[in-house]
Design goal:
alpha/beta, 2 domains, 5-stranded mixed β-sheet, two-stranded parallel sheet, 15% strand
Length: 231
């Protein structure tokens, strides 16, 4: 696996919608377990290939409960806030139906290159009152800058998803942190969907195992796991 050094040149990309939209999901690829949430931990854990204890034990196509055989790998570029990484995505083949699947990490959306941490940074800035135009002008990531239109697409897709799954997300948060503090006064979130981010930050700060897990990555991991199970 290759780590590319941070490129300090200010580039502005107008990424195609297929690479920047968020959450629409139909998949037969497998999701990693919850223990690997950052690019760095993924690279460390997969430096010698996929560990046996993380190999898929069920085929997402025929639902057979068997250990899938290794079936090669391919490279994927991942843009985080500060660094560009090239990682290996490992493929597996079912011994029952003969179909293949990929084992995907949680820190980036399927078929995408921009990590969830970049999108979450945009949302946090927006929730703090910064306009998307200003964010587009000032936020420089390892992929350069993104247009206001791209940031708007991210924001809308994320808002819609949180609106549709807010009750479920609150249940998850309250299971992890039953006595979550509800902000009042000036610190009270203005937007309804901002409450979820505020509460999740409390989970991250009080539960050591969740320190590196952003809300969007967690939400996507749950959604993808269910899509594979249902599919």
């Amino acid at each position: 696996m290759t780590i590319l050094k941070k490129d300090k040149r200010k580039r502005k990309h107008h990424w195609p919608a297929s690479l920047v939209s968020s959450f629409p999901l139909v998949t037969t690829n497998m999701s990693l377990t919850e223990e690997i949430w950052t690019v760095q931990s993924y690279i460390e854990g997969f430096i010698d290939g996929c560990p046996n204890h993380l190999r898929p034990m069920m085929c997402p196509h025929c639902q057979a409960e068997v250990m899938l055989h290794k079936h090669g790998s391919f490279k994927r570029t991942v843009y985080t806030l500060l660094e560009v990484f090239i990682i290996s995505i490992f493929r597996f083949k079912c011994t029952k139906c003969g179909r293949s699947t990929s084992l995907l990490p949680n820190f980036v959306m399927e078929h995408h290159q921009v990590a969830w941490e970049v999108k979450e940074e945009v949302i946090h800035q927006q929730l703090s009152g910064i306009a998307l135009l200003k964010i587009a002008e000032d936020l420089v990531t390892s992929a350069g800058k993104f247009s206001e239109k791209t940031l708007w697409r991210w924001s809308k897709a994320i808002r819609d998803e949180l609106k549709d799954s807010s009750s479920e997300q609150w249940q998850i948060i309250l299971e992890k942190l039953p006595h979550v503090e509800i902000p009042v006064g000036p610190s009270k979130p203005v937007r309804e969907w901002a409450w979820l981010f505020t509460a999740w930050e409390q989970v991250r700060s009080t539960k050591p195992g969740y320190m590196n897990i952003g809300l969007l990555a967690r939400l996507y991991q749950i959604k993808r796991s269910r899509a594979v199970t249902v599919g």
